[in-house]
Amino acid sequence: MRLIAELLLLAGRVCCAFAAVIGAMAFASYLVASPVDATPRMDAESGAIWTSVPVHVDPGHQPYERVPDRYPFKFSAGRSLTVIDNATFSLDGNTFVLAGVPRIAPRALCVDANGRRLACGQNAAGALRTVLRRGFIACSRKALAPKLFMVSCLRDGQDLAGLLKEVPRPQLFAGAR
């Protein structure tokens, strides 16, 4: 009998401890929970967004949050594009340097795994030319000097520096200039 009484007492204490832990977690969740956001959201069910006829949109009278364009400088490579080296190009009289791309001199020579010498400077510049000419480019730019900009660019949503880093590069030849 005494053993059963002690087991019931122990089970009661475990249940009380369990209930206390659950209650503490609920109270902590209540304290940490973020308040309801009063910013209006786009709701597909509301009639304010979807219409069956064209409507003039006045951004000044819409309460929706506007996110600024991270890549405001946009271009498509044309005849005025000149590639200077693997990280630098010129367009309409302005010079752009790609951020995150280590420069290789245009006349640099490389040695591949088999010991053959390659014109890696020209090959790297050709890779940049190919990447720039194959799509619409969107860039964010920072002026370094008049007509000289440091840029970070995207082509079809992919980072240009990342695309250029994927191109396999042999080792630079020490005696080459």
Please sum up the structure shown.
The chain is 29% helix and 24% strand.
Structure explained in plain terms:
This protein is of the alpha+beta class. It is 29% helix and 24% strand. The chain contains 3 helices and 10 strands. Strand 3 (88-91) and strand 4 (94-98) form a beta hairpin. The longest helix has 31 residues, at 2-32. It starts with a helix and ends in a 5-residue tail after the last strand. Mean pLDDT is 82; it is low at 173-177.
Keywords, please?
177 residues; alpha+beta; 7-stranded mixed β-sheet; 3 helices; 24% strand
Q: Termini distance?
A: 96 Å
The pLDDT mean sits at 82
Rg estimate, integer Å: 31 Å
Largest sheet: 7 strands, mixed
Low-confidence stretches: 173-177
* Percentage of residues in helical conformation: 25-40%
Number of helices: 3
Q: Give the beta-strand count.
A: 10
Which overall shape is indicated by the principal axes computed on the Cα atoms?
A: elongated
> What would you call the structural class?
alpha+beta
